[in-house]
């Protein structure tokens, strides 16, 4: 039993990463046979993993019971980026109005250091980027907000990869975040937020929409 659970868990993590890093792109049809061959497993752990991925909304089943990697529509992108701007905009204001800009500049800087270290790998850079954004909303200390945000991270990661591929420059984004951190330490809210908004909401969204 332990071996079966372990294989299913292994299949789940491998398949999820391949969906998130676009190895299995949106709209791709998956079959248990194909996945079993690729992962060198029987179909039972594959089937279990697919059920979990379906519950998370990463794969869907069509009328013919085919398994499809969930598409990312323009409406999805518009809604997710609207949600990000609303939540993070409010969180960023809270960081400054509560007098914690200096504290959060160091917390965000830790995430940016990780982003810089991952600059050559856009998938892991995007994972680090999502953690930077989670750090911003953590100012609310609100578990419900965290759960809502985490619910959409899978979509955010895939959208972010499209953004990078279609015009968001990693090195420029990293340098701008360093500048944002300096503005935070000198308590310059408007200039700090302008960088976050332009790079991570406006350019991010427009680049993702070019998918």
From TrEMBL:
SUPFAM superfamilies attached to this UniProt entry: GntR ligand-binding domain-like, Winged helix' DNA-binding domain
Keyword DNA-binding tagged: yes
GTP-binding in keyword set: no
CDD domains from the UniProt entry: WHTH_GntR
Domain called HTH gntR-type: residue spans: 5-72
GO molecular function, one term: DNA-binding transcription factor activity
Keywords per UniProt: DNA-binding, Transcription, Transcription regulation
Protein name from the UniProt record: GntR family transcriptional regulator
Source species: Sellimonas intestinalis
